Amino acid sequence: MKTPTGSRLRILGLLALLISPLSGEEKKPNILFIALDDLNDWIGCLGGHPQTITPNLDRLAASGALFKNAHCPGAACNPSRTAIMTGLSPHRSGLYDNGQKMREVLPDAKIIPQHFRENGYHAIGSGKMLHYFIDAGSWDEYFPKKESEDPFPFTLYPKKRPLSLPRGGPWQYIETDWGPLDATDEEFGGDASVAKWVSQQLSQKHEKPLFLACGFYRPHEPWFVPKKYFEPFPLNKIQLPPGYREDDLDDLPPSGKRTGPNRYFAHIREQGQWKQAIQGYLASIHFADAMLGRVLDALEKGPNADNTIVVLWSDHGWHLGEKQHWQKFTAWRAVTRVPLMIRIPKNCAPGLPAGTKPGTIYDQPVNLLSLFPTLTELTGVTPKKDNESPSLVPLLKSQDSPWPHSSVTFLGKPGSFGLSMTDWRYIHYANGDEELYQIKDDPYEWTNLAGKKEHEAKLKELRNLAPKTFEPLKLPSLAALTKLKWHPANGPKTPSSKPDGSTFKVTFLNRSGSAVELFWMTRDGGRQSYGPIPAGKNKTQQTRPGAVWAISSSKTKKSLGHFIIGDRTAKAIIPKESP
Fold this sequence. Notes:
single chain; alpha/beta; Alkaline Phosphatase, subunit A; Immunoglobulin-like; 2 domains; 8-stranded mixed β-sheet; 5-stranded antiparallel β-sheet; 24% helix; disordered N terminus
């Protein structure tokens, strides 16, 4: 008996499905996860500075969803990136500071690429996603090679440095410098190399759904980029930050007054480099935006355009003089508020089949901690059980969706944080000092309302929303500390100390084979003993940048060498004596 042709075709079709079923992997969307480093709200669509040039950031925002009230989980690179990539808040993990090591504090935590790998994704990336390491075991492939644990491709820098800003002392971060380079993008390398590699991945089809991370380092210091990115910003036309006000510290509590003014900003002004620095920051943003444009072009022209979720964020913002401050490490909006954009094509993500409506703007307070659960919900991937932050999918589905959440940014000291609502910001310091701002009328946080009787009810309301418990800061091990350079006694004469900056601890490790004595070199070249260090033992000493510590043999009194203290906690290894 013959089977009708139509029936045979239906049977064959069913057999094909049984033999090669359509897997969930094939249905899942790709993810393009883009990070920019140290980018505040100085982009066109956020209105942070009138001279910024960011056409590609603006076009991405216009093509999807822009969160205008997004905040970072930590006020520095390491705590923020660790929190984003693990989905664990600093006050739960105990990782608050740049000096900590993620894998010491969280040895078993899964980061986003590993979680997606375990759910059928091919996870690859390039550039800076974590704090100066790659975490090789969490990726299938990386550029540069993941085994190197160095996320930075070759980057061109001036042969002689500093170029523009003389070092004010040992307290100054060596990368605080800027200037144009006579080089093409390709000669410069760095983010241009990252953009090229990521673009190549987007220009080809992949067997598995792709998690592709793209970490642009600019506008992180140093602000050296090809000179064509400086040219649109003539120095004589540079405008100062809109949020700067000379008397902005007057109404701050003692903790705020200590946090605000720092020697970087004072030094930059003394050297007449404020406008040059702003120029360098704007040029670096312009460069990063151009590299973003290359990646977006590759996506839109390639085979993955209709099946790729795009997420763009920055780890934290940056002060350029606001509150008399330079850099990050504060709970003010200049640091906590960051760009966040999400674009989802229609019929791409199982969790949002309608996709994002172009040009949608959200004012609700959201946090980058929400990115992990948002991506698992969008893609249909199994959620990570220890993620506590709310997914953004309800908001992406409807702008009017209830959002009873605050957004918290943690500082380096447990108990210190900034809390953001739709129109209010509350800052709490570990010693109990407080600040309160109404953003609609005071976007630059010039007027602290915490001491005003008429705002007591609002202050109480925000206190009740704040975290109540904080994991203690988990100090890095000796193995994780930076190693100071040993200057043996047969070299240059031991210099005198020139201490300048805040105190911190340095641990001296005596590996010489015999007892030694530790001396502080005084400002006038004298020596002050701080006691012996037995063979094989350690001694932790409070010190300051620019201090010089000399080591002598306890037995022979012979000078062995010295260490010059840098700008952070470190270890000083006293080597075995030469025969």
